[in-house]
Structures are given as C-alpha cells and as structure tokens.
C-alpha cells in the first residue's frame, strides 16, 4: 500500500493513465448530496511520508452548495459514496473523518488546510472539480493547481507536481486553519474500508503548519 501511494505522484509515471473511473448516475448523486451548515470552504489535504517527509498525494475538498472531495489519481474508495471520475459526493462529517483515517497511518500523516471562501469562489471550485473527470497517475497535485487557478483569489496556486509545494502555498493564505493528523495504524487500511465508520480513537490531531 505504501509503495502504491508513493507512486501516485512520482514523475516516472507521468505517462500513465488512471482511466475514466466510475460514473455514478444522476439519481445517485442527487440522493447523496450533502450541504454543510458552515461557511463555504476550500480544503487541501496533503499526505506526507513520515520517513522521508516528502509529499505523497494531494486531494481537494470543496464545500459550497454541496460538499465533495476531489481525490485525483487516488486509491480511496467507499461503498456508500457516489463517484464520478475522481470526485466523491455526499461528504458529510463522518465521511471526512473516514477519508482522513484512510490516509493517516504509521507511515503517513495528513495535513489539512481549511480556507473560508465566498459562495462564488466555492461554486466555481465545485464546477471545476465536478467536471474534471479522472486524472492520470502522477498528476494529482498538478490537477489541483490547475483547478485552483480558475478560482478568483487562487490565481497564484502552483501547478508543480509536488504536494509539499502546494501545501506551502496554502500555509501563506490569510486565515487558513491548519491541522495535522497522525495515526499509528498499519499501512494496510483495508480494515476501515470494510468496517465503516472510521475509528477516530487512534488519531492524534495537532494544529499549525507542518514543520518537519
């Protein structure tokens, strides 16, 4: 599992393709639709290797008229979440926890950046991620940078294929809230895929930028 996650963003795989991916029906997407009561938000998730401190993967959560997760070229799955390409629908709070717990493990930590945005910014971001489709392997972070550059206020988002570069960009956004998630669970996360919901008891949360 660790080797597979590392491979997601390696330049050696730039020519590989993730395929078209699942495509949920309109009825499934509409039935799963979830709108958070909080302010419109754009959230960056960055998965960092605890041994090398290198970035392994990036994902983007957008919360506006609905909340979705754009997980480009990722391995995450959930039996109750409709998926179109690399976008997952129906992201309530429990599913956010599940997404974090899926990625946090003894070899990886998850850095979460939450940025409150305007409704207009959120809707532009939602339109971009829900129309993006599946992303080729190794282009996870690049695709997020391209998505963000279409959103007013994020025009300087890096398009480099390095998760830490985009993470450092989010560090500088005024008002950003940053959390770091640590979990000593083993690399094999098939247990939480089988046994939803996520087990939050073994996750440690710290606040502030990742300084390792």
Q: Would you mind describing this structure in some detail?
A:
Strands 4-5-3-2-1-6-7-8 form an eight-stranded antiparallel sheet, with helices on both faces. With 212 residues, it is of the alpha+beta class. The N terminus is likely disordered. Helix content is 28%, strand content 22%. The protein is globular.
Topology (elements, then pairings):
Elements: H1 2-7, H2 26-32, E1 41-49, E2 55-63, E3 67-70, E4 83-84, E5 87-88, H3 93-103, E6 108-116, H4 119-130, H5 140-149, H6 163-171, E7 177-183, H7 190-194, E8 203-207
Antiparallel strand pairs: 1-2, 1-6, 2-3, 3-5, 4-5, 6-7, 7-8
- Which geometry do the CA atoms define? globular
Gap between N and C termini, in Å? Answer: 23 Å
Q: What is the strand tally? A: 8
Q: What count of helical segments does DSSP give? A: 7
Structural class: alpha+beta
Strand order of the largest sheet: 4-5-3-2-1-6-7-8
**Radius of gyration, taken over Cα atoms and rounded to an integer in Å:** 16 Å
N to C succession of SSEs: HHEEEEEHEHHHEHE
Q: On the 0-100 scale, what is the average pLDDT?
A: 87
What is the assembly state of the chains in this entry?
A: single chain
- Helical residue percent band: 25-40%
Briefly, what is this?
This protein is α+β, with helices and mostly antiparallel strands and 212 residues long. It contains 7 helices and 8 strands, in the order H-H-E-E-E-E-E-H-E-H-H-H-E-H-E.
